[in-house]
Amino acid sequence: MPPAYPWRVTVPGADQPSAVRADGVGEGVGERTPPRPGGEQRGPAADRRIRTFHPRRSRTTPSAASALTRLLPAWGVDAEEPPAHLSDLFDPPRPVVLEIGSGMGEATLQMAAADPGHGIVAVDVHTPGIGALLAGAERAGLANVRVCVGDAVELMDHLAPASLVGIRAFFPDPWPKVRHHKRRLVQPAFVHRAATLLVPGGTLHLATDIPDYAERMLAVCAAEALLVNRSGGFVPRPDWRPVTGYERRGLVAGRPSVDLILERR
Q: Which neighbouring-strand residues pair with 228?
């Protein structure tokens, strides 16, 4: 049997728990609402989605606002009309990782700088965060970052099968109330769609610090025939994945994180 939700982590110098952390990182992906009895649908009948992210409102800094104005037209991706192969966004084309929920972009920038041979397309609904990511990529001279402001499932719906080497969703919104669990990102339909977009050997990498969500992720991914969990359960955070500010607040509050890495068969 796979290991249960595992370890506790002590953060040096973190003697006092922080206040309740902010809402999730706005992973920007939705599930379609199932048909109502009799086939009747609400709203735009065939395409209404269950929103899986909290809209977040925060101030856009001058540097982020400038980056959005100057760089988004060139480095941004339209969620409804992307190229079928995101590798075409880069010159020269390179293998692409889709990052769902990039927050303020600190971890994205570190991973992009450490792995210039891969392109990262970061999707988030939080415009100030996308602006901060663009500004940081420009300062660092990174040519392997592209962004999408919007719903990741819209983007994923238009991508070609077997066109990504990785999909990452670190700390998606946990939606803690049971009646809201249907809004959680990691559902069977999402995992299957993600699996179809991966090349053989490509990875779906998830992380969370919510125990019941971690177990749900494990069960949903185990049921997907296109994916294999080589470890049989959770794994410690890989050295190459930065600890985000969001994750650090959880550690200070006594919530250890776990990673789940699935490989496309």
A: 263
Selected from 3.90.1150.10, 2.40.110.10, 3.40.50.150, 3.90.1170.50, the CATH number assigned to the domain covering 46-264 reads 3.40.50.150
Q: Are 257 and 172 in contact (CB under 8 A)?
A: no
pLDDT digits (tens, 9 = 90+) for 185-199: 999 999 999 999 999
- Tell me the catalytic residues: 173
Q: What phi and psi, each to the nearest 5 degrees, are found at residue 115?
A: -140, 70
- Read off the pLDDT band of 44 (50, 70, 90): very low
| Locus of tokens 């949903």 | 220
Answer whether 119's CB lies under 8 Å from 94's CB: yes
- Rounded to the nearest 10 degrees, how much is the dihedral formed by the CA atoms of 74, 142, 169, 256? -150
First-residue to last-residue Cα distance in the chain: 21
The residue to which tokens 């402001």 are assigned: 149
In eight-state DSSP terms, residue 235 is B
